[in-house]
Design a protein that fits this description.
Helix content is 47%, strand content 14%. Helix 3 runs parallel beside helix 4 and helix 6 runs parallel beside helix 7. It has an eight-stranded parallel beta barrel with strand order 1-4-5-6-7-8-9-10, surrounded by five helices. It has 291 residues and is an alpha/beta fold.
Length: 291
């Protein structure tokens, strides 16, 4: 259902407010570059610092500007089950194709608590759900057995954005849940995840080089493994630079270098350290993105 390349789209800001002009241009460029879908209001979209009103406005804006040409999977997760249900209901109301639900952060629920959290959301809102598993940000890992139980009991849980970094875990999830779409949540692992049965990537990098990320996935799916490997290694230094500081600081800085939007972030996200910015500039120059 959610195969291909989906961009975890940034939220441009200007003078403290969402810059919808820049967001509209970015969405249009994503479409022209062959992106399959966009994911607004995720971590890359700085959802933790968006107000409720901004969160909903950004999602609705993305749906209207995608115009059915790309899928829209709205970031709708929270460490509060009720809040996650609120945003998931909104995603369905405005016509999103699905909702991305991150595992509850800070609370550190048990596996039973995780199961009950996702089951309640799935039972309450009839929309395709992508579970986002990223223990590095949430402090809790969703175990493969929990995925198995959720997939058995919740027919609208259709995919996982897996950001554990463990191919063993991803393989276990795919083995236990063969009908679950396995989506890479790490640009550096797109190719390996495809090789173990994954169907795509929710990408940070495709904010900057969407055509190349699309080309990698298309090459692999078309059986041209040699070309996919070539693109993987071409992208790798840029991937490393995109995560030299906490996401989305580098990608937003890179977007500003390319004139996509301003580099403005919201605290506690802040301007890159000079040394790290130099590393990012170097990687972008080597890639041919800037002079």
């Amino acid at each position: 259902m959610f195969s291909g390349v989906f961009t975890a789209i940034i939220t441009p800001f200007k003078n403290g407010k969402v810059d919808y002009d820049s967001l509209g241009v970015l969405i249009e460029n994503q479409h022209k570059s062959g992106i399959d879908g966009i994911v607004p209001c995720g971590t890359t979209g700085e959802s933790p610092t968006l107000s409720y009103e901004e969160h909903e406005q950004v999602i609705e804006f993305c749906v209207k500007n995608a115009k059915g040409r790309m899928k829209v999977v709205a970031g709708a997760g929270s460490n509060s089950t009720d809040e996650a249900i609120h945003f998931t209901k909104f995603a369905k109301k405005v016509g999103c194709d699905g909702a991305l639900i991150i595992s509850p952060y800070y609370n550190k629920p048990t596996q039973k608590g995780l199961y009950l959290h996702f089951k309640k959301i799935a039972d309450t809102v009839d929309i395709p759900i992508v579970i986002y598993n990223i223990a590095g940000r949430t402090a809790v890992n969703i175990e493969p057995a929990t995925f198995e139980k959720l997939c058995k009991d919740c027919k609208n849980i259709v995919a996982v954005k897996e950001s554990s970094g463990s191919l063993d875990q991803m393989s276990a999830i795919k083995s236990l849940c063969p009908n679950l779409d396995l989506i890479s949540g790490d640009d550096g692992l797109t190719l390996p995840v495809l090789a173990v049965g994954g169907c795509g990537i929710i990408s940070v990098l495709s904010n900057i080089v969407p055509k190349d990320v699309v080309a990698l996935v298309k090459a692999f799916n078309g059986g041209n493994i040699k070309e996919a490997v070539k693109i993987h290694y071409k992208l790798l230094p840029l991937v490393k630079a995109m995560f030299v500081e906490t996401n989305p600081i580098p990608v937003k800085t890179a977007a500003a270098m390319l004139g996509i939007c301003s580099p403005e972030l919201r605290l506690p996200m802040c301007e890159m350290e000079a040394a790290n910015k130099s590393k990012l500039e170097h990687a972008m120059k080597e890639y041919g993105l800037i002079k």
